[in-house]
Protein 1
Amino acid sequence: MPQVKDFAHRLARAVAQSDPDHFTAALPKAQRKGRIFVDYLRNQCGATAVMPYSARARLGAPVAAPISWKEMETITTGRFHVGDAAELVKRAASKSLSGWGRADQSLPDL
């Protein structure tokens, strides 16, 4: 639906504008460096996203894993793969990732 894509795009831009040091809605990878890409294109028919702790179908079987804000300062590429299962289980229970999927916030009035 065009309306959903339009809303998702406007929301991504609003998030990026509210904290440009941490978020971006820019498509080119060169413009995303060091920031979280708010991917509004995953809200359309046929688009897919990877759930946390899922292995990706790529060379080396990298694993999508949540990271802390502190880690955002140093991580430049994916660093976990399926062989890191024990470390990932330990990280999931760590204090630094406690409540990583929760947020006490409201959406902006667009």
Protein 2
Amino acid sequence: MTTLTFTPMTEDDFAVFWPTFQAIVAAQETYAIEPSISIEAARQLWLKAPKASVVAKDASGQLLGAYYLKANAAGPGDHVCNCGYMVAPAARGKGVARAMCEHSQQQAHQLGFLAMQYNAVVATNEVAVALWQKLGFSIVGTVPNAFRHAQLGFVDTHVMYKVLPGH
């Protein structure tokens, strides 16, 4: 794995990221996002609404992945954050998701979050489930048939949770 730099996502970064985002949601294998989402709605979801949106780039400046970080709930639940990660197809299997997850936990801690929760990790996304578990997340619940996978039909999702370091 090459050294990654993490910077806040810009509008230009989002334009570069859009094909990755579009391909991932269109595949209907990992994200419960409408496959025909418009670029404007995707920009709002990934770049505008979250507390932080971050890109991971290699030494040459190529965008390898991106993540968002936001409160999982409002008011009395706003101390737990939620993140979403997407890795460019050419960068998969090279440690980008791990690096983004580790970075997002540091960011979340700096922003005052006490824990991180993933609301709907698709159970058939075994690589992600295993990685999140290696990074200290526990499956705290499973929702039967909560995701309509493009190839497999109805599959389960996991709720995964981790208290952030220092809390």
Protein 3
Amino acid sequence: MLYGYAHAIGVGAMTTINVALASLLVAVVLGLVAAMCKSASNRVLNTIASLYTSLARSAPDFVWLLFLYYGGQAALNYAVNKISPGRSIEIDSYMASVIILGAVYGGYVAETFRGAILSVPAGQLEAGYAFGLRKRTVLFRILYPQMMRFAIPGLSNNWLALVKASAITSMVSLNELVFLSTAAGRATHHILLFFCVAGAVYLALTSVSLWILRRLNMKFSLGVREVIL
């Protein structure tokens, strides 16, 4: 089946999922921190977060990826050699992909979270403080559960875009779906077949993702009108 490359395609699909999930985790953490900083009254935090989101969205993903994988690694090793001669730090293709995709999409996730935070009525937070709740309790018991209802539709788009953007990691020779599909197509001279298989795998991933996200949306939208993704 698939000229003996079915296993390779499966390995590539699992690598794609792995990279996408790891990058999403980084993006959510960075995005949530940046959103809270941009929503804060502290000018320094606001400026730093705004600068981060602007830089993250200012250039194509593959430009940042190549910058880190080649230029960033050379600069890092130069600095390490200055401190400890003879030592070096290697940033492999997987690490570079997760860092860049996570950081870039963290900028988009930050705006999604910021919009969700602003959608929660300020009076509910003030009511929590009026009842004597601590700030941490207000955040985790009042703000975050309600903001997720507004954030999930935007996060759904971010996730789907991230899954497809993982294809650029083939540029740094990561053994993901597109890289292995291209290699199999060239080896068998059936490039169109393997690109169609890769497209079908992406379609399956996005379809399953949408089903899971709709279930999450229903959970966080109990008692309110459902938001159609």
